[in-house]
Amino acid sequence: MSVKMSEANLRPRMKAVLEFVREFRADHDYGPSIREIQRGCEFTSTAVTEYQLVKLQELNLIDRDPNIARSIRLCSDR
Fold first, then answer.
1. Are the CB atoms for 70 and 31 separated by under 8 Å?
2. Cβ of 32: how many Cβ atoms within 10 Å?
3. 64 in Cβ contact with 53 (< 8 Å)
4. Residues sharing a CB contact under 8 Å with residue 59, sequence separation 6 or more, in sequence order
5. Dihedrals phi, psi of 62, to nearest 5 degrees
């Protein structure tokens, strides 16, 4: 079940990922890789990054295609 959640109510790690994606997409014409998010948010592993991305996707804050590299985008950009 997907729910739209306010960015203000997000946990710190989720906010960090969302802000990183927002800034990265503003600077580039494509989304960041999982490893770039990991480094940018100073997470310990790509598994932590993936977990945060799944949660943000469940909350309808990001969208991504698992079959396309660098497809992460904010739902507010659609």
1. yes
2. 22
3. yes
4. 2, 3, 4, 5, 10
5. -130, 165
Q: pTM (2 decimals)?
A: 0.87
What's 77's DSSP letter?
Answer: G
Alpha-helix runs per DSSP H in 5-76: 12-27, 34-41, 46-58
Residue found by looking up tokens 């960041």 in the block: 32
Residuewise pLDDT in 10s, the chain (78 residues): 344 557 778 999 999 999 999 999 999 989 999 999 999 999 999 999 999 999 999 999 999 998 999 999 999 876
How many Å separate Cα 38 from the centre of its chain?
Answer: 10
Tokens 């948010």 sit at which residue?
A: 41
3-state percent breakdown (helix, strand, coil) of the chain, nearest 5: 55, 5, 40
d(CA 42, CA 36): 10
